[in-house]
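We store sequence, tokenised fold; for instance:
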Amino acid sequence: MDTIIQRFDKIKFNIASIKPIKPINIIAVSKTFPIENIRPLIEYGHEHYGENKVQEALTKWTETKKRNPKLKLHMIGKLQTNKVKFLFPLFDYLHSLDNLKLANKIAEQEDKNGKKLKIFIQVNIGNENQKNGVDLNYLEEFYSICVQELKLNIIGLMCLPPNDKNTNNYFSNMQKLNKKLGLKELSLGMSNDYLNAINYGSTFVRIGSKIFGNRS
């Protein structure tokens, strides 16, 4: 049976085999897995981990992060404004900024905490009513407000594309939007499509089941 480390090394090998132009950051999506399952990867030296619930992350990571200051924690789930204060000082990245109310709350908490998060704007690339994300027609204005008025550190865009077999089209559109805004990082791709995402310029890939196995 493959270990977590063997599965992780296979992903790194697969990424290296397509010769990406930029360095690729693998976010090991550790949501729902206990810290005991994650520890082998921490001890192996991997630094980037993804959680989608603030309370779960606080329980799992507070002590572990104190002991391992190099670890980088990514908030990849939907974030409610009343949970923003708990992002500090535990999280380093936010992948799901999707509205102005949330942006204002983050700016307020950054001032209070004296810490800047590295932030991705979540884009509703498929224009789906049931999904979070900034509308394509509002993206440039939203980005401008975040950077110029709120002084947020927007490093890239993120999306969860529709499951309609047109993933490459959505990835291509995201790459163009990212380039248009002059952003250096791009958060695309999960366990099933991370290599495709890298081919479209993704620099952060969010991989859970291919590292930790299926969730119960």
Q: What stands out?
A: Strands lie at 25-29, 48-51, 72-75, 93-97, 118-122, 154-158, 185-187, 204-207. The chain is about 40% helix and 15% strand. Residues 108 and 150 are 9 Å apart (CA to CA). Helices lie at 4-17, 35-44, 54-67, 100-113, 139-149, 167-180, 194-199, 209-212.
